[in-house]
């Protein structure tokens, strides 16, 4: 009788282990996420981008204090470049022109909930990073294909010590690892602002625009796709002024870890329905898969994903993201023409 | 940047050939400076007129399909007279030769680069950087990747 009870107990414990591991993983990830916003430290990190230029590697010094951070590149092509994040916006400092280019910053807790809905987090091992014991978390998609992560969380402080990022094709996209860290180190507030003499350029830092305001800026009502891959939702709408300076609307969709953007802007001069257009024909031989004006799907630099350009009657769509080509085309085909 | 230091970059900016960090800085200046913006608009108008004037006709989309169709063997039935068979073959051969000749002699220049079309790389950089706020964003890697992409020419791996 006792033996039977013991066997039953062992069996139930065995069946519970995976779910316990998942619960532990999610809890550990939440703790690490909180620490990212609270922790103070000074660290040196190596950053490897295997897909960029045949394997770029650089050394970065990082100062963190209560959600703010400063990064200084110590080696490689970006040596001397500085980046500061004051918790509201991130500033790229250019020492040549003494200018600081801003972009929105700040993390939102609900994005982590979205991630945990769409990704499975499990504890896979315990390893040492920079001499410190760390728990290794595996983050894998519940709706494959999708990107994945391995995250090394410091057992003592819950600070993330190393992150390996894999793209949807399973290739290692980047790896950043702490080589030395001083936890609790205090850094003055001035380190997280643009230095004296730098001009902060005017740029829209608003996180999210209303649909109407953004439509006014780009000159047409925004189009949204009828199809979204499982788990994705609209994350934000913003105004982009890239390239020629022409306004472009960016609709960013996210599943918490992966994302794609749909940029849409008016045709440039000479890109209307003139020569080069016709029924079922795209620009420059960009023949679509059953859709007029759908261009070629291109791999982006550094393994950052794919891009697909679509020409509609009154605008150009550009889809960018780490998604399979078939998925990008499906999203594009669901856009109103 | 001052108007004086920016002037020499404006023609390149107007035709979409200005890349990387310099491109970023010049565009920032142009966005804020009405006179430089007007100059870029003038340059773009001239460029657009030139491109329209030089534009070569695009080859029809179904050119190769039609060549293949013409070159495909024509089914010959036993009842077909020998003379008609020979005439059909000759017509098909001539049509195929004509189509290939047209294809080879067609003086199409590369289709014009769409004027003022922003390089895709810049949108990609923007997309990469919009992941900065994601809960598991590896910001050290993201910053590095975006900076390298920003400095690389369009279409090349950084």
Task: For this entry, give a set of tags.
heterodimer; A: alpha+beta; 6-stranded antiparallel sheet; 4 helices; globular; B: 158 residues; mainly alpha; 0% strand; elongated; disordered C terminus
Question: How is this structure best described in words?
Answer:
The complex is a heterodimer of chains A (337) and B (158). Chain A has a twelve-stranded mixed sheet with strand order 7-8-9-10-11-1-2-3-4-5-6-12. In chain A, strands 13-14-15-18-17-16 form a six-stranded antiparallel sheet. Chain A is 19% helix and 39% strand. With 337 residues, chain A is of the alpha+beta class. Chain B is elongated, with a radius of gyration of 26 Å. Classes of the chains: A alpha+beta (337), B mainly alpha (158). At the A-B interface, β1, β2, β3, β5 and β6 of A face α3, α4, α7 and α8 of B.
Topology:
The complex is a heterodimer of chains A (337) and B (158).
Chain A: H1 2-38, E1 40-49, E2 56-65, E3 68-73, E4 82-85, E5 89-94, E6 99-104, H2 109-118, E7 119-129, E8 132-141, E9 148-154, E10 160-166, E11 172-183, E12 199-200, H3 211-218, E13 233-241, E14 247-254, E15 259-265, E16 294-299, E17 306-311, E18 316-321, H4 325-333
Parallel strand pairs in A: 6-12
Antiparallel strand pairs in A: 1-2, 1-11, 2-3, 3-4, 4-5, 5-6, 7-8, 8-9, 9-10, 10-11, 13-14, 14-15, 15-18, 16-17, 17-18
Chain B: H1 3-7, H2 10-14, H3 20-32, H4 34-54, H5 63-71, H6 82-105, H7 120-129, H8 139-151
């Amino acid at each position: 009788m006792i033996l039977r009870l013991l066997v039953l107990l062992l069996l139930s414990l065995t069946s519970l282990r995976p779910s316990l591991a998942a619960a532990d993983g999610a809890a550990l990830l939440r703790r690490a996420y909180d620490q990212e916003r609270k922790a103070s430290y000074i660290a040196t990190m190596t950053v490897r981008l295997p897909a960029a230029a045949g394997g770029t590697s650089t050394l970065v010094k990082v100062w963190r204090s209560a959600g703010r951070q400063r990064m200084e590149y110590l080696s490689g092509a970006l040596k001397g470049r500085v980046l500061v994040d004051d918790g509201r916006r991130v500033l790229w400092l250019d020492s040549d022109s003494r200018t600081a280019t801003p972009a929105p910053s700040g993390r939102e807790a609900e994005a982590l909930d979205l991630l945990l809905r769409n990704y499975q987090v499990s504890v896979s091992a315990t390893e040492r990073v920079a001499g410190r014991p760390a728990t290794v978390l595996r983050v894998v998609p519940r709706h494959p294909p999708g990107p994945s992560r391995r995250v090394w969380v410091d057992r003592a402080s819950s600070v993330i010590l190393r992150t390996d990022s894999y793209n949807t094709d399973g290739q290692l996209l980047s790896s950043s690892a702490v080589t030395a860290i001083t936890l609790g180190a205090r850094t003055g507030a001035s380190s997280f602002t643009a230095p004296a003499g730098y001009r902060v350029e005017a740029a829209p830092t608003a996180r999210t625009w209303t649909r109407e305001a953004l439509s006014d800026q780009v000159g047409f009502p925004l189009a949204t796709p009828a199809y979204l891959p499982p788990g994705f939702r609209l994350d934000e709408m913003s105004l982009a002024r890239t390239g020629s300076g022409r306004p472009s609307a960016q609709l960013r969709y996210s599943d918490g870890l992966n994302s794609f953007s749909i940029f849409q802007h008016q045709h440039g001069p000479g890109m209307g329905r003139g020569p080069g257009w016709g029924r079922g024909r795209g620009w420059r031989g960009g023949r679509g898969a059953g859709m007029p004006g759908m261009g070629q799907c291109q791999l982006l630099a550094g393994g950052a994903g794919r891009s697909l350009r679509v020409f509609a009657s009154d605008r150009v769509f550009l889809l960018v993201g780490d998604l399979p080509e078939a998925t990008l085309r499906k999203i594009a085909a669901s856009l109103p023409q | 940047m001052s108007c004086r230091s920016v002037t020499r970059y404006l023609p390149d900016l107007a035709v979409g050939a200005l890349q990387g960090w310099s491109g970023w800085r010049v565009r920032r200046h142009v966005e804020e400076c009405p006179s430089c913006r007007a100059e870029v608009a003038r340059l773009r108008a001239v460029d657009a007129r030139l491109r329209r004037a030089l534009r070569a006709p695009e080859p029809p989309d179904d050119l190769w399909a039609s060549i293949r169709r013409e070159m495909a063997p024509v089914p010959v039935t036993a009842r077909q007279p020998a003379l008609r068979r020979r005439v059909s073959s000759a017509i098909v051969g001539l049509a195929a030769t004509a189509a290939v000749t047209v294809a080879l002699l067609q003086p199409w220049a590369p289709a014009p680069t769409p004027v003022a079309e922003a390089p895709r790389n810049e949108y990609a950089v923007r997309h990469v950087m919009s992941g900065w706020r994601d809960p598991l964003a590896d910001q050290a890697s993201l910053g590095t990747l975006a900076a390298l992409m920003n400095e690389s020419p369009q279409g090349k791996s950084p």
